[in-house]
Automatic annotation (TrEMBL), chain A:
InterPro entries: Class_I_gatase-like (IPR029062), PRibForGlyAmidine_synth_PurQ (IPR010075). The gene is purQ. It comes from Candidatus Methanolliviera hydrocarbonicum. The keyword ATP-binding applies. Part of the phosphoribosylformylglycinamidine synthase complex involved in the purines biosynthetic pathway. Catalyzes the ATP-dependent conversion of formylglycinamide ribonucleotide (FGAR) and glutamine to yield formylglycinamidine ribonucleotide (FGAM) and glutamate. The FGAM synthase complex is composed of three subunits. PurQ produces an ammonia molecule by converting glutamine to glutamate. PurL transfers the ammonia molecule to FGAR to form FGAM in an ATP-dependent manner. This is Phosphoribosylformylglycinamidine synthase subunit PurQ. Keywords: ATP-binding, Cytoplasm, Glutamine amidotransferase, Hydrolase, Ligase, Nucleotide-binding, Purine biosynthesis. Part of the FGAM synthase complex composed of 1 PurL, 1 PurQ and 2 PurS subunits.
From TrEMBL, chain B:
Its EC number is 6.3.5.3. Part of the FGAM synthase complex composed of 1 PurL, 1 PurQ and 2 PurS subunits. It is found in: Cytoplasm. The gene is purS. This is Phosphoribosylformylglycinamidine synthase subunit PurS. Pfam families: PurS. It comes from Candidatus Methanolliviera hydrocarbonicum. Belongs to the PurS family.
Length: 264, 80
C-alpha cells in the first residue's frame, strides 16, 4: 500500500482530521514533522518514500511574515526533491494553510514548470479584513485534470467549511487566470445557495474568479482553502438532521480520490 | 549594522486593514482622514560591515521570505 505523509510543523492544527480521513478509508497515512524530512531529526524520513504528501491546515509559525511563508521557505531547502516528486506524478496537496504554503513555495499555480523560483500568486488578506469561519458552498468545476477530486462529478455543489483570514487568491501575470481556465486548473469556486457565482458573503474572501481551489498543470498538485476533512462524515454538516445524506459527508470523496490514484 | 526593510502593498492592491482603520478613525471623529495604508517594517541586525553586500542580502531575504512580488514592493535602508 502506498504511503501518505501528513506533514506538520509548529502551528499546524488540522493534521489529526486529515490523518483520520485517510485512516478511516484504510489509507497508510503517517505524521511526519518537517524536521524529519529536512534531516534535522534523528528519525529521518524521505519525501521519495511517499506517494502523497498533504500539508494540513493551521497557523504554521504563527502565520508570521505571511500565512504559509515560513513553512514554504523551510521546504524550499528541498527544492530538488520536490521537483522530482512532482515530475514523478506523485500527489502534493495543501488544505487552507497548506494551500498558502504551496503558493508561497511556487508549486501553484504551477504553469510551465513544476516549481517556479518567482512567486506567481498569493493568498492575501480577506477583503472583509476578518477571519471568515463558516460553511461555504463550492462548485466542483474541474473537468478531470485534478487527480484529487475525480470522485466528484463536474458541477457538483459541496459544502466545505471555511476558516481563514488570508484566502483571497490573486495571480501575478495578467493572463494567468485565462491560462488556468484553458488548462482545466480551476477546481472549486464559491457559489451562493442557488449555485451562482456571487460576492461576499458567499465568496468569503474576495478571491479572483470566486476561486476556492486550484491544481497545477499536471493535476497532481492541489490547494484548497475550505476544509474537506471537517466534513468527512455527514453529521458534521450543518444541515445533517434536515438533509439526510447517508454516512459520509461531502469531504470523503476527496480522500477516496487520492487513494484511488495511489493504491490503484 | 542594522538594515530596515519596509514591505508595502503595490499600488492598486487592496489593503483591507488600511480601509478598516480608516473607517474606525473616521468613526472616532477624525473626519479629515482621506486614506490609510498599512506597511510592515523589519529591523534586522547583521553581523556584516560591508554595506553593498548587506543590501544584496536584504534583497535575497525579501525574495526568499519577506515579500511576495505579486502584491508587495519593498524598500531597504542600511542603518549604521
Amino acid at each position: 500500500m502506498a504511503k501518505i505523509c501528513v506533514l506538520r510543523m509548529e502551528g499546524t492544527n488540522c493534521e489529526w482530521e486529515t490523518f483520520l480521513a485517510f485512516k478511516r478509508l484504510k489509507g497508510d497515512a503517517e505524521f511526519v514533522h518537517i524536521k524529519q524530512i529536512l534531516k534535522e531529526s534523528e528519525e529521518e524520513r524521505f519525501l521519495e518514500d511517499y506517494a502523497c504528501v498533504i500539508i494540513p491546515g493551521g497557523f504554521s509559525s504563527g502565520d508570521y511574515v505571511r500565512a504559509g511563508a515560513i513553512f514554504a521557505s523551510r521546504l524550499s531547502k528541498l527544492k530538488k526533491e520536490i521537483i522530482e516528486f512532482i515530475e514523478e506524478d506523485k500527489l502534493l496537496g495543501g488544505i487552507c494553510n497548506g494551500f498558502q504554503v504551496l503558493v508561497e513555495l511556487g508549486v501553484l499555480p504551477g504553469i510551465g514548470e513544476a516549481l517556479s523560483e518567482e512567486k506567481k500568486a498569493v493568498l492575501t488578506v480577506n477583503d472583509s479584513n476578518l477571519f471568515e469561519c463558516r460553511p461555504t458552498l463550492l462548485r466542483h468545476v474541474n473537468g478531470g485534470k485534478c487527480i484529487f477530486t475525480r470522485r466528484y462529478t463536474k458541477d457538483k455543489i459541496v459544502i466545505f467549511p471555511s476558516a481563514h483570514a488570508e484566502g483571497k487568491l490573486v495571480f501575478g501575470g495578467e493572463d494567468t487566470l485565462e491560462k488556468m481556465i484553458e488548462n482545466d486548473q480551476i477546481v472549486f469556486r464559491y457559489t451562493d445557495s442557488k449555485g451562482d457565482y456571487a460576492g461576499y458573503p458567499w465568496n468569503p474572501n474576495g478571491s479572483t474568479y470566486n476561486i476556492a481551489g486550484i491544481c497545477n498543470e499536471r493535476g497532481n498538485v492541489f490547494g484548497l482553502m475550505p476544509h474537506p476533512e471537517r466534513v468527512f462524515y455527514s453529521y458534521t454538516h450543518p444541515d445533517w438532521t434536515r438533509n439526510s445524506m447517508g454516512v459520509y459527508g461531502d469531504g470523503m470523496p476527496l480522500f477516496k480520490s487520492i487513494l484511488d490514484y495511489i493504491d490503484g | 549594522m542594522e538594515v530596515e526593510i519596509k514591505i508595502k502593498l503595490k499600488e492598486g492592491i487592496s489593503d483591507p486593514e488600511g480601509k478598516n482603520t480608516k473607517k474606525a478613525l473616521r468613526l472616532l471623529g477624525f473626519e479629515d482622514v482621506l486614506d490609510v495604508h498599512t506597511l510592515k517594517t523589519f529591523r534586522i541586525k547583521l553581523d556584516d560591515s560591508d554595506e553593498g553586500d548587506s543590501v544584496e542580502e536584504a534583497k535575497e531575504m525579501c525574495k526568499k521570505l519577506l515579500a511576495n512580488p505579486v502584491i508587495h514592493d519593498y524598500e531597504i535602508k542600511v542603518k549604521k
